[in-house]
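Hi R.,

Here's the chain you asked about this morning:
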Amino acid sequence: MTGAVRRQMEAPVWAVDAQPLLVAAGIRKSYRRGGLVRRRSFQVLIDAGVELHRGEIVGLVGENGSGKSTLMKILIGSLDRDGGTLTRHGSIGYCPQKPILYERLTPDEHFELFGHAHNLEPAVMESARDEILEILDFTLHRGVRVEELSGGTRAKLNLGLALLADPDILLLDEPYAGFDWDTYLRFWDLTAERRKAGSAVLIVSHFVADEERFDRIVHLEDGRTVAR
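And here is the predicted structure, written out as tokens:
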């Protein structure tokens, strides 16, 4: 048996699958601003795109107001694009920049609600929930209403809900904002595990502090994405 054949047999199944999980190209998006008399179109995205493959962590970097969150919403399908193409394969987990949580529900109740939405078996949901609570270190807050949680714990729950169903594609918009240093390191352990398992991870941020943790970094400038 040759070395090349041996390496191919030892590699995970997804490693020999060249099909990207997500491809966005030529994405355009504009908004209309102003009153009825001086209403004008403001173009946020002109020629934006990104390609995600299994087993990689990609950074999408741009200044505040550059359109990163707009592009992210288009990628998940919650916002219509004005032009361009978008194809997705596999399940998606989305962590929005601003947590969308129910103030009167506890983390446990959130996990149960999202588990139902993902059609997860109760035992699967409970196992994934308990693992997330432990890794992100907020087990003690599992029964506390969101309205009583700190900003950092809300951010943990926001990320945990994106991870719950073990999606093929993870789209994370400023996921570690509000994390302390220990949780920040735990976050990178989690994403590294997801990459090893074959997930594609896109992390949006206005700056990159640890470039070595990314496989690729794409910059969004003047409505256009540029790989560097």
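One quick note: The longest strand covers residues 40-52.

Cheers,
M.
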